[in-house]
């Protein structure tokens, strides 16, 4: 089947009234571009897990209002290289960070299943929200440059909202913008805890996009899983059919 199959078009007569989607590693292949950008300033991407951990720590400080975005990037980069045993001056940290940002932006790409899925969702008449844990203005630039903005009725950026998934505040804000209730909304994302479980705990229907394929063990209660966005239309139609039965 394809995501454009007319027989899969939902009638909006069930409980699902809107869909929220994560951005990075759900719509945009962020990990690949981020690893390439890190390699541009380090020489390899072996330390990517360390980079992610330090980034998460500093983004939390940003969301708490302790740092501005530009200050956070500089401090984060210095902390990362310090963990590797290299002390950078502020000027050198800025130079390396600007280089990383340049390579990162040049590497932004959509996954192949994204546009067909978004086209199907728009044709279904379901309001759509992009809900991202990104902290800076670059996220709106990314969404615009990749042609994603046209598909969404609202875009929620954690750094602008002041809350990040799994905090229900960002989910509440998305649903308020769309004019729907949490219980009538599906959220899809690549992080099991932050996206799927966070959405479920907020009162939404949580869908985990696990692009790595099926994993061993059972899913948490109330969570659905897909390995590609091409599977989302069928999942939504099944949900609608069950709600209408």
Automatic annotation (TrEMBL):
Coiled coil: none annotated. One of its GO terms (biological process) is small molecule metabolic process. Gene3D superfamilies: HAD superfamily/HAD-like, Haloacid dehalogenase hydrolase-like domain. One of its GO terms (molecular function) is hydrolase activity. It comes from Saccharothrix violaceirubra. It comes from the Bacteria. The keyword Hydrolase applies. The keyword Magnesium applies. Its cofactor is Mg(2+). This is Putative hydrolase of the HAD superfamily. Keywords: Hydrolase, Magnesium. It holds the Pfam family Hydrolase.
């Amino acid at each position: 089947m394809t995501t454009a199959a007319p027989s899969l078009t939902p009638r909006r007569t069930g409980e699902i009234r809107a869909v929220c989607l994560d951005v990075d590693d759900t719509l945009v292949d962020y990990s690949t571009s981020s690893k390439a950008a890190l390699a541009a300033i380090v020489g390899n991407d072996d330390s990517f897990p360390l980079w992610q951990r330090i980034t998460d720590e500093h983004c939390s400080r940003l969301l708490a209002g302790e740092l501005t975005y530009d200050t956070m990037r500089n401090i984060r980069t210095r902390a990362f290289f310090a963990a590797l045993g290299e002390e950078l001056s502020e000027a050198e940290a800025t130079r390396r960070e600007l280089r990383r940002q340049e390579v990162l932006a040049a590497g932004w790409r959509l996954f192949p299943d994204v546009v067909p899925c978004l086209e199907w969702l728009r044709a279904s008449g379901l309001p759509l929200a992009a809900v991202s844990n990104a902290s800076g203005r670059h996220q709106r630039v990314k969404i615009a440059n990749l042609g994603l903005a046209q598909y969404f009725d609202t875009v929620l950026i954690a750094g602008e909202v002041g809350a990040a998934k799994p905090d229900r505040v960002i989910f509440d804000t998305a649903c308020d913008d769309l004019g729907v209730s949490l219980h009538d909304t599906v959220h899809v994302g690549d992080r099991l805890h932050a996206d799927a479980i966070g959405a479920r705990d907020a009162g939404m229907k949580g869908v985990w996009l696990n692009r790595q394929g099926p994993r061993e063990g059972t899913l948490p209660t109330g969570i659905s899983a897909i390995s590609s966005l091409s599977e989302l239309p069928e999942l939504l139609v099944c949900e609608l059919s069950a709600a209408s039965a």
